[in-house]
Amino acid sequence: MGATGNKLKTVDEESGEALKSVFAALDERRSFKLEAGAGAGKTTSLIEALQRILANRRKYLPRKDQRVACVTYTNVARNEIIRRTDSSPYVYAETIHGFLWNVIAPFEKQLAREVLELDSWQKYLDGRTSLDGFSVHYRTGFPKITDDCVELSHNDVPVLAAKLFSMPKFRAIVSDRFPIIFVDEYQDTPKGLAEAMLGDPGTSLCGSTFGFFGDHWQQIYQGTCGPIDQPSVEPIAKRANFRSCAAVVDLLNKMRPELLQAKKPDVGRGSVAIYHTNNWSGVRQKGHKKGQISSAAAKSALEWVTNDAQQRHWVGPAPDVKVLMLTHAAIADEVGFGGISSAFQNNEAYAKKEDYVIAFLMDVLEPAFESFQGKRYGAMFEVLSHGRRPVLQSGKDKIAWAKFFNSLAQARSDGSIGDVLDLCLKQRLFGGIEKVMERQDDLEAALRDLQPGEELKKEQRRLAEYAKLRDVKYIEAMALRRHLDEKTPFSTQHGVKGAQYDSVVAVIGGGHPQHKYAEMLESFPRRAELSGKDLERFTRARNLFYVACSRAERHLVLLCTTDLSSEALQTLQDWVGPSGVTAVRYEGDEAVGGEQG
């Protein structure tokens, strides 16, 4: 188990033993799961396993046309694996969608039959009972059907792959190409897919040997598998932490005693400091922000807590600090794009630029203006060349461009998003704004049809959001771009999974119905008694809490801005001791001090 009594082995011993177990499983063709806590060096173990296979290729890949597949969840991870294996032709590293499509694409007839059974496709089939003769493609990621072609969505690929992997013959075909398949960040595998890939224990011999690398405590997305507890998969624990200081590792071990991590021998002590705001006397928020202090009180607390931690706990020069918040809406209040956040029902519309008006402002207009200001006219024309080539044929055209950007500069500084968009919609210098123009036309038509006092209908949500967005001050768009370009210290706790920072301030608050931290902390001592929906809610909050805490290398600060029960406070004190917990003292909404407890 990696520990003798209460004493852990060294970090190198823990890492070495885990790797030996991985090698033994590979030698005996046993599927395994390497459970590696945050900072354990999971990717290093995966690369070392790949290098062992390459060094003994004929043993593991007896035919020249066979490869080991390495399935990742991002292009960055895929490219890193390719780099660290020197682009070996015997390693097929690909994202999960890329790998799955590679193995299922040749079976068009079976895919066409399976599409007919998908509930999500019934609205596209338009009564069709057969897709015989149809080709099946995965190109745009959006579902579509034509006279002779089915275009699959991103979500369709893992669903269809699971159906094919449930067939022993298909698993045998995949195994013939890929005798060994590694899955990185296995906990993020779509639910049901890993089980289908492994197959029934009675028929698993005709399938590949699987190596799952990950940590089910870092499962933070819905619809994913979490822990894999199949009898045919050998669990291997990697009990090491190469990332964090002693204080952070101690906290993680208190939270997770079943996977105690060893520290690096030369690691510093660092610090963990926890603050709560139970002493704030104002009226707390309701709804999904139930128990949360006001935005003004939270902002003041964040400033005071960061200064207090630096003075009392952080040794040496002020470190670079990453501030983690639960939602984009909370970050919006801090950074200054609250109006944009309020305009949209779905945060992804602006946070991931899914709304094409936001995408135009962030990816076209702002970069073009920045290039114009810096006299980088080639870069400006390049970003504006979408749609049709910008006009620049005479001195008159130069004057027109200068006039447009001078007007834009004025509107950016003291106008609204609507003012800026109107300038863009009226100009004839560049194209690529047709979709924005279409939405503007739709809004104007919808407003003309309204009776006095009548509002846009529920099904006109996008137009209502666009109308609200137009009224927001444009300086908020500039603030949003700084945030999306990571030029502010703020990130969401979901968005930093896999990252690490010298010092972290994690705001433990409300605002997300799926992650109720206060309830999780209160339930922690009796977690073994939870079941059903209660256990699901606890696990979701615990996992994201663990991810936030484990990003820190040297210093970690937790600021709780939601009301904590005495049981929740006791949990925190059990983890760091009473002296590690500070109650923020307030005068109105202003944080003015703190006291132990």
What do you see in this structure?
This protein has about 600 residues and is an alpha/beta fold. It contains 25 helices and 20 strands. The strands form 5 sheets. Strands 16-15-17-18-14-19-20 form a 7-stranded mixed β-sheet, sandwiched between helices. A 6-stranded parallel β-sheet has the order 5-4-9-10-3-11. β1 (about 5) and β2 (about 5-10) form a beta hairpin. α16 (about 355-375) packs across α22 (about 475-485) and α18 (about 395-415) packs antiparallel against α19 (about 415-425). The model is unreliable at about 1-5 (pLDDT under 50).
Write a concise synopsis of the structure shown.
The chain is α/β, with parallel strands linked by helices and 597 residues long. It has 25 helices and 20 strands.
Major sheet strand order:
16-15-17-18-14-19-20
Q: Evaluate the radius of gyration.
A: 27 Å
The count of β-strands is 20
Average pLDDT over all residues: 92
Topology of this structure?
Blueprint: E1 3-4, E2 7-8, H1 11-27, E3 32-36, H2 42-55, H3 57-60, E4 68-72, H4 75-84, E5 91-95, H5 96-104, H6 108-117, H7 122-125, E6 135-141, E7 144-145, E8 149-153, H8 156-165, H9 168-177, E9 180-184, H10 193-198, E10 209-214, E11 234-238, E12 240-241, H11 246-255, E13 262-263, E14 271-276, H12 295-312, E15 321-325, H13 328-335, H14 338-343, H15 348-351, H16 356-373, H17 377-383, H18 395-414, H19 417-426, H20 434-449, H21 461-470, H22 475-484, E16 490-492, E17 501-508, H23 517-523, H24 532-549, E18 552-560, H25 566-576, E19 581-587, E20 590-596
Parallel strand pairs: 3-10, 3-11, 4-5, 4-9, 6-8, 9-10, 12-13, 14-18, 14-19, 15-16, 15-17, 17-18
Antiparallel strand pairs: 1-2, 7-8, 19-20
Helix pairs in contact: 1-2, 5-8, 16-17, 16-22, 18-19, 20-21, 23-24, 23-25
